Amino acid sequence: MGFSLKLCPLVFLLSFFLAFSFSLSFSSSSATQLCSHEHATVLLQFISAFSINKSASSECEYFSGVKSYSKTLSWKEGTDCCFWNGITCDNVTGNVIDLDLSCSNLYGSFPSNSSLFLTKSLQRLNLSFNDFKLSKIPREIGQFVSLKHLDLSYSEFSGQVPNEISHLSNMLEVLDIGNNNIKDTFPYWLESLPKLQVLILRSNKFQGFVRDTKANSSFSKLRVLDLSNNDFFGPLPVHFIENLKAMVNPLEDDNSAQYMGGSFSYEYSIVVILKGLSIELEKVLTVFTSFDLSKNKFAREIPKVIGKLSSLKGLNLSYNNFSGQIPHSLQNLTNLEWLDLSSNELVGEIPQELVSLTSLSVLNLSNNQLVGCIPQGNQFNTFGNSSYEGNLRLYGFPLTKSCDGNGLPQQPPSSFHGKDHELWEFGWRVVLLGYGCGFVFGLLIGYLTFHNGEPKWFVTLFNGQQNQRARNVRKARTRAQRRN
Fold first, then answer.
1. Residue ranges making up the domain that contains 427
2. Are residues 438 and 383 in the same domain?
């Protein structure tokens, strides 16, 4: 009991010391906020230009699987902006380096003189899935000299892509301006961005030719190229494709590998067209190399050089005007997981060499003019009818029209020749039947005559005919004598 009483003052002193230390630590951390007052003021001025409207991010959950919410409601003056929703700060300097306001229900015109452009430290800016009321992409965006990721997709931007984005040449790795209302030609000046790894221009109003690039190093780091659902036309530029060196060897240098595993990994929705429907396969990192030119007006033959992009996981050239045969060089795309060449004007047979693509899990060759037998073996044994429908002269599994053992389509017997054959057989049967019946009848008459003499009915019939002929002869002679 006495020992316990002696411990009480010690416990009390220890508790008091811990509480005092905690209060000092808390007051010290409160006094030294990470976020600078300047950055907090700039950010609050930026969001003051917009209202909150849930319909502004209505597509967010459908396309990204994330529910929208107003991140900026947590932004309060006098609080540390590094703890605001959507903001990440540098642990050392306290500068804002990541601003993610995707799916934040922001609604309103985007001001070209926005205070946001004063945050030079930004490395990642994501404004996707908001509604900026057909604002033009501000030219001032080129002031973000440290920017690595720029995502303006699904945000109702219009106009052209500002050339000032080329000022981000030292750092920019991801540019996603897909699903807007941008009307422009292909921005060739993007080739000046040597670190660009993801370029997404899909679902806009881009138009015209995609010509060959000038420099051999143009777009050499690209791993994801998505130009789908625009109005590009003409043949595919061979030299442009040859420059996509990262699609040949995705981890050709250590810097790329380090980026791929860094904190700024970028998720990109892979979309393929199956039976006319856009289906999201999965979200993948940029190491997932893909080449998507679907839903344009590209024409002529598919260049054989595409077979050099051996690191491709996905190739989608569907809904274009490609003609000619499927290039045999596609057999070199050994990492390919999905291939969509549907709804073109491709002719000829499916190359047997494609059976070697053992990673292939999605194949769509429907609605072309392909002929012959479908290759068999490996992954080709797993594809259903929908992979080939709309090719009326294709045969073999899984279609109902089969091929013979020599790999040739089995033709059903012609109905015309079948009827001829039946008529021929019927005619000979009648002839043989007639010969047979006559032969038997003759034998029967001979037998009866030999054994019984001439049958009465036979004699009567035969003699009657002879007597009639004799009477006719006599009458003719009598008439002749009377004339004389």
1. 418-479
2. no
Both 111 and 211 in one domain: the answer is yes
Specify whether 84 is located in the same domain as 189: yes
Position 66 scores a pLDDT of 85
- Domain stops at, among 364, 395, 426: 395
- Which strand (E) or helix (H) includes residue 181? strand 181-182
What mean pLDDT, rounded, does the chain reach? Answer: 80
Q: Which of 277-281, 320-324, 391-395 has the lowest mean pLDDT?
A: 277-281
Burial class (CB in 10 A: 0-12, 13-18, 19+), 201: buried
Residue 21 lies in a domain: no
Tell which of 360, 395, 430 closes a domain.
395
Through-space distance between the first and last CA atoms of the chain, rounded to whole angstroms:
184
Tell me, yes or no, whether 15 lies in a domain.
no
Task: Quote the tokens at residue 476.
Answer: 């003719």
- Report which of 133, 132, 85, 138 is spatially closest to residue 115, judged by C-alpha positions: 138
Which segments of 190-265 does DSSP mark as H helices, in order?
238-242, 254-260
**Structure tokens that stand for 157 in this block:** 């931007």
For residue 212, pLDDT over 70 is answered with yes
Do 251 and 340 sit in the same domain of this protein? yes
Q: What was the pLDDT predicted at 216?
A: 73
Would you say 95 and 89 are in contact if contact means Cβ atoms under 8 Å apart? yes
* Same domain membership, residue 351 and residue 224: yes
Distance CA 470, CA 196 (A): 120
pLDDT of residue 363: 97
Higher-pLDDT residue of 183 and 275 is: 183
Provide the β-strand partners of residue 96. 89
At 457, the amino acid letter reads W
More confident residue, 430 or 220: 220
**DSSP letters along 55-72, please?**
GGGTTHHHHHS-----GG
CB 366 within 8 A of CB 275: yes
Structural domain contains residue 291 = yes
* pLDDT reading at 52 higher than 70: yes
Looking at the structure of the chain, the number of domains it has is: 2
Mean per-residue pLDDT, 286-313: 92
Question: Does residue 2 fall inside a structural domain?
Answer: no
Give the CATH number for residue 47: 3.80.10.10
Contact 243/311 with Cβ under 8 angstroms? no
Give the C-alpha separation, 131 to 135, whole Å.
9
* Helix, strand, coil percent content, the chain, rounded in steps of 5: 35, 20, 45
